[in-house]
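Researcher: Next entry: Erythromycin esterase (Flavobacterium ardleyense).
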Amino acid sequence: MNKILILLFSISSILAFGQSKKEYLKNNRFDLTSTEFEFPQKDFNIIGFGAYHGSAKTYDAEILLIKNLKRQNLIDYYIPETNYSQAFFFQKYLETGNEELLKELTLAFQTIVNQEGTIETFEHWEKLRELNQTYPENPIKVFGFDAIAEYHFPIKHILQLTDKVQNWKLKTELQRKFDDKEINFSTRNAETTELLKKFINDYEENKSIYYIQISDTISFHHILKNIKYNFDKEKGREEIIFDNYVYFKNIMQLGNKKQFFKYGFFHIEKQREEKSSSFFTRIIEQNVYDRKKVITIMGYLTKSEVLWDKIYDENGDYKTYTTEKGFGIGDYWKEYFKGIKKLKKTKLSDITLFKLNSENSQYQNGTDLIEIKLFLKKSNRKSLQGKPTTDFIDYAILISNSKSQKPIEEMK
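Model: Predicted structure:
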């Protein structure tokens, strides 16, 4: 009899707790598609938004957030998952509207986010440019802190910065390589890597000759430093992003600016999973900003499809692409986020925002939306070490009924 009573009590407690979370979500949800939506938190330094890559509606959610933040004057910098030079030329696109440049940038973007070299990425930047034209006196600026994953745009940037330097043999060789449309600018290409090593060594040995003729030495030295990271491989990606950010924080006076980071899931987690330390975790642990001034918004997919892979022929020419709508979206019977069902039952629209960090939030206990359940495999529960949801994220966006992104090569 006692065992039956204990069992009934346990079941009723679980049901009550689950209902409590549902009630909490109902009281802390927002329809991003509503004209009345207003992002509820004003006092922050940086916001990070991320989700699994490859979903078309993820960009819809992002642009809705950005437009609302801009309307409230709560965004100064847009910081996507790009290196410094890619961001520099994305900024050029926003200023000029050069669509040929944008297409090149979209293709380069997939070197670090391989599911984002897409039509949707291209169109997203078009929408950002349109938004900036609405605020000509105070447009959003683009900046990048990521590791270098391709050499096309860093070399393009170097050549622009050294345009006035004459009689520099290795610069001429770099220009010749850049002008060759058949050259591979992959960071794994031995020929390109060797030329960059020679160029950097020559500059460092003859700095007094070239230095005075370079238009922006801060940018130039920063690009060379980041290229050199690829030579020794000693720094991990998160460390590079963090170091680059800290380097520019004072130079750009970023501490006084509102910054919107668009990054993948792991990079914007505010707490460690075991020993792994994300960029946002480093920002908090090393006291760059107070934890409360760092906001993480995580996107979750349901009934959706994602771009999975691009298929190339033996010559490296694009052929077709594949998609996934089960594994890879985080809401599949073999792989799903614990607690996602509660979001699905309380959503207001296909793009619903849930505030998880309210006072007395039910998400201050348990691992919902962080723990990943896997069929016949161990979840990541152990690596979370009992840390609750709100240690990692502040908001969740449920994105429903999304089609996959389409490769930029499919653009007519």
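Model: Note for the record: The chain has two domains: 42-80+239-412, 148-235.
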